[in-house]
Amino acid sequence: MxxxxxxxxxxxxxxxxxxxxxxxxQEDLAAAAGVSIPTVKRLEASDGPLGGRPQTAEKLxxxxxxxxxxxxxxxxxxxxxxxxxxx
Length: 87
Description:
- The chain is α+β, with helices and mostly antiparallel strands.
- The chain is built from 5 helices and 2 strands, in the order αααααββ.
C-alpha cells in the first residue's frame, strides 16, 4: 500500500488525467475506490493536492494504480500520470 507521504503528492489534476487515460467517469472511479460519487465530485471540484480524508485519498490512488496508472513526479520532476507499461 502507498504511504501517506506518496498520496499527498498526488494532485487533483493528476487524478483527473488518470481517469481520462482510463476512460473512467467519476462514477467509475467512485465504484472502483469504494467511495461515494459526491465525494469524487467534491474533491475534483477543487485544485491543488488531493485533499479530503487520508483514507479516501488512499482508496482513490490505490484504485487508479490497480487499474494500471503510474503517478509521476517528485524530486524536481513535473507531476504527471501514465498507464503502466506492464499493464
